[in-house]
Write a structure and sequence with these properties.
Blueprint (H helix, E strand, L loop, with lengths): L2 H7 L3 E4 L11 H12 L7 H5 L6 H9 L2 H11 L5 H18 L10 H10 L3 E5 L8 H9 L6 E3 L1 H4 L7 H10 L7 E5 L2 H10 L2 E5 L10 H6 L2 H16 L5 E3 L5 H13 L5
Parallel strand pairs: 1-2, 1-4, 2-3, 4-5, 5-6
């Protein structure tokens, strides 16, 4: 069977997330930035606090954190009043250069990703990225990703379409730019709850990754230091949170994607839809 036929009748495009899915094992970069941002304003937040809204647009992420009851209480105590939309605008303006400063230290390509990209291209499958980062944060990240062997056909950011996840607009924009349709031939691969929600909203197949993603939230070195029982517990908890959102597949890591893509292609050929 030719690549052209495979492209037409099976999976035609894969949309990846960035942090925790293709780059930045454990999705560390955004967490570091959020914790530092709130600390600058006298508010202590944990890594777990910073991870809950992960995958959404970074401004939406900050607002969700500000409205979490315990963080809201800490903010009011430290700053004299509850957070307002004006505070949000100031925080986001402060966050952007902070995230740009942090990101270059967290752009390692996750093991196995370049090989997966190569296999997708052999199948004639287009590759795009959606993210919670705005375009102004992406310069060093795109360069370092390329140096590490990850080069999608398209990067899409929320500011290009007006709204981030869980809205489907980034995925729809990617489809238009890639000239690929219908959305039922797209696979969305991500590590957050918002990635699954985006896939469902856009009518794509949803694949969630575990070991190196946000829901486990540990660096590669930290994962390797865990006992088998500890790692199993962390992965099991992450699986439960992701499964609650209803992805079509949950895999250990992005390196395990190709058999799933081939299975989805076979399902599409049989007439199945997400």
């Amino acid at each position: 069977m030719s690549n052209t036929t495979q492209t037409v009748t099976g999976v035609r495009a894969v949309i990846f997330d960035i942090s925790g899915t293709t780059l930045d094992y454990g999705s560390r970069g955004p967490v570091v930035a959020f914790v530092e941002l709130f600390a600058r304003h006298g508010v202590t937040v944990s890594e777990a606090d910073a991870r809950k809204p992960m995958g959404t647009h970074k401004k939406d992420h900050i607002w969700t954190m500000l409205n979490e009851p315990l963080i809201s209480e800490r903010w009011a105590k430290a700053n004299g009043a509850p957070a307002t939309r004006a505070d949000l605008d100031k925080l986001y303006d402060e966050f952007t250069p902070l995230q740009m400063e942090v990101l270059p230290r967290h752009c390692d390509v996750i093991p196995g990703v370049p090989e997966v990209v190569k296999q997708l291209r052999c199948r004639g499958i287009k590759i795009a990225n959606t993210t919670g980062f705005d375009t102004g944060m992406m310069g060093d990240l795109i360069r370092l990703a390329g140096e590490g062997g990850y080069t999608p056909d398209l990067w899409v950011c929320p500011d290009q379409v007006g709204k981030g996840r869980p809205a489907p607009w980034m995925a729809h924009y990617a489809a238009k730019q890639l000239n690929v349709y219908p959305m039922s031939t797209f696979v969305k691969v991500g590590d957050t709850l918002a990635d699954v929600e985006e896939a469902h909203a856009a009518g794509m197949w949803a694949v969630s990754v575990l070991r190196h993603g946000n829901e486990v939230g540990l660096s590669k070195a930290a994962v390797e230091q865990l006992s088998a029982a500890q790692l199993g517990e962390a992965i099991g908890a992450a699986r439960g949170r992701l499964a609650a959102k209803g992805p079509h597949y949950i895999i250990d890591g992005t390196a395990d994607l190709i058999p799933v893509v081939d299975e989805i292609s076979a399902r599409i050929v049989r007439g199945e839809r997400p």
